[in-house]
Amino acid sequence: MALIQITDVAFTYDGSYEPVFDGLTCRLDSGWRLGLIGRNGRGKTTLLKLLAGELRPRGEIMMPLAPALFPFAVPEGDFTTLEALTACAPATPPWRLTLEMNRLDMPEETLARPYATLSRGEQTKVQLAALFAREDAYPLIDEPTNHLDLEGRRRVGEYLRRQSGFLLVSHDRAFLNRCIDHTLSLNRSGVTVTRGNFDTWEREWERQNQSEQALNDRLQKDVERLTQSVRRQAAWSRKGKRGNSA
Predict the structure, then answer these.
(1) Residues 6 or more apart from 218 whose CB is under 8 A from it?
(2) Predicted local confidence at residue 214, as pLDDT
Protein backbone atom coordinates (compact mmCIF):
# COMPACT_ATOMS: atom_id res chain seq x y z
CA MET A 1 0.00 0.00 0.00
CA ALA A 2 1.01 3.62 -0.53
CA LEU A 3 2.02 5.96 2.24
CA ILE A 4 0.20 9.01 3.57
CA GLN A 5 2.92 11.58 4.23
CA ILE A 6 2.30 14.45 6.68
CA THR A 7 5.24 16.82 6.76
CA ASP A 8 5.71 19.81 9.10
CA VAL A 9 1.99 20.57 9.18
CA ALA A 10 0.82 23.58 11.19
CA PHE A 11 -2.74 24.79 11.62
CA THR A 12 -4.47 27.43 13.75
CA TYR A 13 -8.14 28.34 13.57
CA ASP A 14 -8.95 31.93 12.69
CA GLY A 15 -9.24 34.05 15.81
CA SER A 16 -7.23 31.63 17.93
CA TYR A 17 -3.69 32.18 19.21
CA GLU A 18 -3.19 28.53 20.12
CA PRO A 19 -2.20 26.26 17.22
CA VAL A 20 -3.92 22.90 16.94
CA PHE A 21 -0.85 21.50 15.19
CA ASP A 22 2.65 22.90 14.90
CA GLY A 23 5.22 20.88 12.98
CA LEU A 24 3.16 17.68 12.80
CA THR A 25 5.09 15.02 10.88
CA CYS A 26 4.32 11.34 10.40
CA ARG A 27 3.98 8.60 7.78
CA LEU A 28 0.97 6.30 7.70
CA ASP A 29 0.33 3.21 5.59
CA SER A 30 -2.91 3.65 3.66
CA GLY A 31 -3.60 -0.08 4.13
CA TRP A 32 -3.78 0.10 7.94
CA ARG A 33 -7.03 -0.11 9.84
CA LEU A 34 -5.96 2.95 11.79
CA GLY A 35 -7.60 4.29 14.94
CA LEU A 36 -7.04 7.97 15.80
CA ILE A 37 -7.15 8.71 19.53
CA GLY A 38 -6.42 11.63 21.83
CA ARG A 39 -8.04 13.75 24.50
CA ASN A 40 -10.81 16.15 23.53
CA GLY A 41 -9.36 19.26 21.96
CA ARG A 42 -6.20 17.54 20.71
CA GLY A 43 -7.31 17.86 17.08
CA LYS A 44 -8.76 14.51 15.99
CA THR A 45 -11.59 15.94 13.87
CA THR A 46 -9.33 18.76 12.70
CA LEU A 47 -6.81 16.22 11.40
CA LEU A 48 -9.56 14.38 9.50
CA LYS A 49 -10.64 17.65 7.87
CA LEU A 50 -7.05 18.51 7.00
CA LEU A 51 -6.60 15.11 5.36
CA ALA A 52 -9.93 15.56 3.55
CA GLY A 53 -8.86 18.95 2.20
CA GLU A 54 -11.63 20.82 3.99
CA LEU A 55 -9.05 22.85 5.93
CA ARG A 56 -5.80 24.27 4.55
CA PRO A 57 -2.68 23.96 6.69
CA ARG A 58 0.87 25.14 6.34
CA GLY A 59 3.18 22.28 5.46
CA GLU A 60 2.46 19.34 3.19
CA ILE A 61 -0.01 16.46 3.17
CA MET A 62 0.38 13.83 0.45
CA MET A 63 -2.58 11.45 0.02
CA PRO A 64 -2.23 8.47 -2.34
CA LEU A 65 -6.02 8.08 -2.64
CA ALA A 66 -8.97 10.45 -2.76
CA PRO A 67 -10.01 11.25 0.84
CA ALA A 68 -13.65 10.45 1.61
CA LEU A 69 -15.03 11.87 4.86
CA PHE A 70 -17.77 10.22 6.94
CA PRO A 71 -20.37 11.47 7.54
CA PHE A 72 -20.75 13.20 4.19
CA ALA A 73 -23.35 15.78 3.21
CA VAL A 74 -26.41 14.41 1.46
CA PRO A 75 -28.29 16.79 -0.88
CA GLU A 76 -31.60 18.04 0.44
CA GLY A 77 -34.71 16.86 -1.35
CA ASP A 78 -36.81 13.79 -1.96
CA PHE A 79 -34.00 11.51 -3.10
CA THR A 80 -33.87 7.75 -3.05
CA THR A 81 -31.04 6.23 -1.05
CA LEU A 82 -29.24 5.31 -4.28
CA GLU A 83 -29.50 8.90 -5.54
CA ALA A 84 -28.33 10.27 -2.19
CA LEU A 85 -25.30 7.98 -2.08
CA THR A 86 -24.28 9.09 -5.57
CA ALA A 87 -23.13 12.33 -3.90
CA CYS A 88 -20.30 10.34 -2.29
CA ALA A 89 -19.76 7.63 -4.89
CA PRO A 90 -20.74 9.10 -8.26
CA ALA A 91 -18.82 6.61 -10.41
CA THR A 92 -19.64 3.52 -8.37
CA PRO A 93 -21.96 0.97 -10.00
CA PRO A 94 -25.07 0.05 -7.97
CA TRP A 95 -23.93 -3.59 -7.65
CA ARG A 96 -20.90 -2.46 -5.64
CA LEU A 97 -23.15 -0.54 -3.26
CA THR A 98 -25.41 -3.57 -2.98
CA LEU A 99 -22.44 -5.82 -2.18
CA GLU A 100 -21.20 -3.58 0.63
CA MET A 101 -24.71 -3.13 2.01
CA ASN A 102 -25.21 -6.91 2.12
CA ARG A 103 -22.05 -7.15 4.21
CA LEU A 104 -23.75 -4.78 6.65
CA ASP A 105 -27.00 -6.80 6.63
CA MET A 106 -28.78 -4.04 4.70
CA PRO A 107 -31.22 -5.36 2.07
CA GLU A 108 -30.87 -4.26 -1.54
CA GLU A 109 -34.37 -2.76 -1.42
CA THR A 110 -33.00 -0.02 0.85
CA LEU A 111 -31.49 1.69 -2.20
CA ALA A 112 -34.99 2.35 -3.58
CA ARG A 113 -36.33 3.82 -0.32
CA PRO A 114 -36.39 7.60 0.22
CA TYR A 115 -33.17 8.43 2.08
CA ALA A 116 -35.07 10.65 4.51
CA THR A 117 -37.11 7.67 5.73
CA LEU A 118 -34.03 5.73 6.89
CA SER A 119 -33.23 5.68 10.58
CA ARG A 120 -30.00 7.36 11.67
CA GLY A 121 -28.43 3.94 12.17
CA GLU A 122 -29.47 2.87 8.67
CA GLN A 123 -28.05 6.09 7.25
CA THR A 124 -24.76 5.35 9.01
CA LYS A 125 -24.57 1.90 7.42
CA VAL A 126 -25.43 2.98 3.87
CA GLN A 127 -22.94 5.87 4.05
CA LEU A 128 -20.20 3.49 5.14
CA ALA A 129 -21.20 1.16 2.31
CA ALA A 130 -20.82 4.05 -0.16
CA LEU A 131 -17.35 4.88 1.16
CA PHE A 132 -16.05 1.33 0.89
CA ALA A 133 -17.75 0.68 -2.46
CA ARG A 134 -15.35 3.20 -3.98
CA GLU A 135 -12.04 1.81 -5.21
CA ASP A 136 -10.34 5.21 -5.35
CA ALA A 137 -11.17 6.38 -1.82
CA TYR A 138 -9.44 6.50 1.55
CA PRO A 139 -12.23 6.58 4.18
CA LEU A 140 -11.89 9.11 7.01
CA ILE A 141 -14.49 8.01 9.56
CA ASP A 142 -15.58 10.31 12.39
CA GLU A 143 -17.60 8.74 15.24
CA PRO A 144 -19.67 6.19 13.29
CA THR A 145 -21.26 4.66 16.42
CA ASN A 146 -23.21 7.76 17.53
CA HIS A 147 -26.53 6.46 16.19
CA LEU A 148 -25.98 2.71 16.50
CA ASP A 149 -27.33 0.36 19.15
CA LEU A 150 -25.16 -2.39 20.63
CA GLU A 151 -25.95 -4.84 17.84
CA GLY A 152 -25.32 -2.15 15.22
CA ARG A 153 -21.95 -1.35 16.78
CA ARG A 154 -21.02 -5.01 16.75
CA ARG A 155 -22.06 -5.40 13.12
CA VAL A 156 -20.28 -2.27 11.90
CA GLY A 157 -17.19 -3.18 13.92
CA GLU A 158 -17.04 -6.62 12.30
CA TYR A 159 -17.57 -5.00 8.89
CA LEU A 160 -14.65 -2.59 9.40
CA ARG A 161 -12.45 -5.41 10.71
CA ARG A 162 -12.75 -7.08 7.31
CA GLN A 163 -11.84 -3.91 5.43
CA SER A 164 -8.37 -2.53 4.80
CA GLY A 165 -7.30 1.07 4.66
CA PHE A 166 -9.16 3.67 6.74
CA LEU A 167 -8.68 6.21 9.51
CA LEU A 168 -11.24 5.99 12.32
CA VAL A 169 -12.09 8.32 15.21
CA SER A 170 -14.23 6.82 17.97
CA HIS A 171 -14.64 7.26 21.72
CA ASP A 172 -15.89 3.67 21.96
CA ARG A 173 -12.96 1.64 23.25
CA ALA A 174 -14.58 -1.75 22.61
CA PHE A 175 -15.41 -0.68 19.06
CA LEU A 176 -11.81 0.36 18.40
CA ASN A 177 -10.49 -2.89 19.84
CA ARG A 178 -12.79 -4.83 17.53
CA CYS A 179 -11.72 -3.29 14.23
CA ILE A 180 -8.32 -1.50 14.20
CA ASP A 181 -4.80 -2.90 13.78
CA HIS A 182 -2.79 0.33 14.33
CA THR A 183 -3.27 3.30 16.64
CA LEU A 184 -2.32 6.93 16.00
CA SER A 185 -2.24 8.90 19.26
CA LEU A 186 -2.25 12.70 19.37
CA ASN A 187 -0.22 13.84 22.39
CA ARG A 188 0.97 17.17 23.73
CA SER A 189 4.45 16.49 22.47
CA GLY A 190 3.43 15.18 19.04
CA VAL A 191 2.13 11.87 17.73
CA THR A 192 2.88 8.21 18.29
CA VAL A 193 2.01 5.27 16.06
CA THR A 194 1.52 1.87 17.71
CA ARG A 195 0.94 -1.45 16.01
CA GLY A 196 -2.17 -2.96 17.56
CA ASN A 197 -5.55 -1.87 18.92
CA PHE A 198 -6.46 0.50 21.76
CA ASP A 199 -5.57 -1.99 24.49
CA THR A 200 -2.14 -2.54 22.91
CA TRP A 201 -1.55 1.22 22.81
CA GLU A 202 -2.64 1.60 26.43
CA ARG A 203 -0.29 -1.13 27.64
CA GLU A 204 2.60 0.49 25.74
CA TRP A 205 1.67 3.92 27.10
CA GLU A 206 1.60 2.60 30.68
CA ARG A 207 4.91 0.78 30.18
CA GLN A 208 6.51 3.94 28.84
CA ASN A 209 5.14 6.01 31.72
CA GLN A 210 6.48 3.51 34.23
CA SER A 211 9.90 3.59 32.54
CA GLU A 212 9.90 7.39 32.58
CA GLN A 213 8.83 7.43 36.23
CA ALA A 214 11.58 4.95 37.13
CA LEU A 215 14.12 7.12 35.30
CA ASN A 216 12.85 10.24 37.08
CA ASP A 217 13.11 8.44 40.43
CA ARG A 218 16.72 7.43 39.68
CA LEU A 219 17.58 10.96 38.62
CA GLN A 220 15.97 12.36 41.77
CA LYS A 221 18.00 9.96 43.92
CA ASP A 222 21.19 10.97 42.06
CA VAL A 223 20.39 14.64 42.68
CA GLU A 224 19.83 13.93 46.38
CA ARG A 225 23.12 12.02 46.65
CA LEU A 226 25.01 14.81 44.89
CA THR A 227 23.37 17.40 47.13
CA GLN A 228 24.36 15.47 50.25
CA SER A 229 27.89 15.04 48.91
CA VAL A 230 28.20 18.79 48.27
CA ARG A 231 26.94 19.53 51.78
CA ARG A 232 29.46 17.11 53.34
CA GLN A 233 32.31 18.62 51.35
CA ALA A 234 31.21 22.10 52.39
CA ALA A 235 31.08 21.01 56.04
CA TRP A 236 34.56 19.44 55.81
CA SER A 237 35.84 22.61 54.17
CA ARG A 238 34.48 24.77 56.98
CA LYS A 239 36.00 22.46 59.61
CA GLY A 240 39.34 22.62 57.82
CA LYS A 241 39.29 26.40 57.76
CA ARG A 242 38.48 26.58 61.51
CA GLY A 243 41.33 24.13 62.24
CA ASN A 244 43.83 26.22 60.27
CA SER A 245 42.68 29.37 62.04
CA ALA A 246 43.38 27.77 65.41
Answers:
(1) none
(2) 46
